[in-house]
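Quick illustration, no need to memorize.
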Amino acid sequence: MRPLFIGIRIAGALAVVAAIVGQLLVSLGFWTATEVRDISTSITNFFSFFTIQANIASAVTLAIGAVLLLRAAPDAHDPRWFAVLRASVTTYMVTTGVVYNLLLRGVELPQGSTLSWSNEVLHVAIPILMLVDWLFAPGRTRLGWGVIGIVVIYPIVWIAYTLVRGPWIFNDLTQELGWYPYPFLNPLGDGGYATVAFWSAIIAVLIGAAGAGVVAISRTRKAAD
């Protein structure tokens, strides 16, 4: 199992890098062709998506995990700091997969702005890989329920960052101030901040539930073997 998951983790990290770089190159070409106002702002927007940030965290986590499997004794468990990191990132990626496929898959984007295979890697393949890795990779450490409180910190900070930054960013598609990475976080749409609060609460519940599930899996007998 150990050599298998070393390979899976390395392949997963490389797939994330390829998908993000590929999409960024396509986006740069699209922005240049459509003469966006500020390329640097568009690049910042690109890296402000939860999906991109969570996938970058996945690549880092998978790379570290591969090294740990290479260096650890056969019966060793993950160090706690890595177990918490891995649990958090797995939660974020599972949530990303669920939210995208339930809420965002049908959202229309400008023609030529999306690299289809990259989109599937980041929203489908890596969420599945992270979940499979959490379920079956050797070395999983038993975690306490308090870890859920750590897991939810980053999404809360990200939502706050998005809502504070959004009103000040020029949106090249609408030619107005106000840029938000996902429609359900846009207070300029129907329902305003009430709708944003509703969907933020729904996503918080999803993240909390996913985090609880991840912690519960860590507490199964396999984690202690």
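Residues 2-224 form one domain.
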